[in-house]
Amino acid sequence: MSLQFLKKTLLASTLLFTIFSSPLNAYKKVLRVGAIPDQNQEILDKRFNLLSKKLSKSLDLEVRYKPVINYVAAVTAFRTNDLDLVWFGGLSGVQARLQSSGAIVIAQRDIDKKFKSVFIVNKKLKLNPISNKKGLKKLKNLRFTFGSENSTSGRLMPEYFMNKVGIKVKDFKGKKAGFSGSHDATIALVNSGAYDAGALNKQVWENNVKNNPKRTENVSFFWVTPEYEDYHWLAQGNLDNKFGKGFTDKLRSEILNLDINNQEDKKILEMFNAKKFIPAKSDDYKKIELIGRKLKKIR
């Protein structure tokens, strides 16, 4: 074997080692953000891509939004550690946290402290709004749809309040309720007449009434529920190990410090229908957990 051949081989090996050991080719850490698909995907994409861009800049790392197909997929992706930070509803957040050791509730919106659901009906029924939950009995024998099966504002709490006045799912037409999959879809189904009535997130309802009058032209407001705690950010418990000591606190601060007076932050907050994010903790969702167990959505 010639000396020249050995020199060429050594040079090639050195170049390969340099390429594959360089920082540019090292494992790139990415904060993977997810969310329950409670609205049209177009809205979700805009909302979470805006936030990801902001966090990427302030945290100095890549932040990537990863859509999921349904509520169960969001919970599963968090449990299997395929998502680091997820925007959950009250029920789905509790489900995910109970399946993920060390998971941390880090924030909620200002509106989530006193959240509400609304019941809506097709105008052809000519049902007037009610002021007391006892009036929910008027929904018996109608075609009724919830949102997602695991939605807090679109299923859990509406069913809870109906149960309190003696209405069960078997009391609807066909002895069952429908599941639209999202709040926007519930409005569309009741508006089209495919269902007589439904329940959904109050904030989504109000946004549609204001911004999409055609989507609600055949729908009437029927009843609004009492308050409860709902959406929140849930983070994996190992983020400090993955991104460095103190990262979880820094992430929480970045979310809580979004400022309505800053134009970039204002766009994000408006997409979340909030004026600010506020601190939250797991105990805030104890009532949701109890109701979830009672309705057998948490085992």
UniProtKB/TrEMBL annotation:
Species whose genome carries this gene: Prochlorococcus marinus (strain MIT 9515)
Keywords from the UniProt entry: Signal
Presence of keyword Signal: yes
Entry protein name: Putative phosphonate binding protein for ABC transporter
Short name of any one Pfam family annotated for the protein: Phosphonate-bd
GO biological process assignments: transmembrane transport
Matches recorded under Gene3D superfamilies: Periplasmic binding protein-like II
GO CC annotations on file: ATP-binding cassette (ABC) transporter complex
Family statement drawn from the similarity comment of this UniProt entry: Belongs to the phosphate/phosphite/phosphonate binding protein family.
InterPro entries linked to this entry: ABC_peri_PhnD-like, PhnD
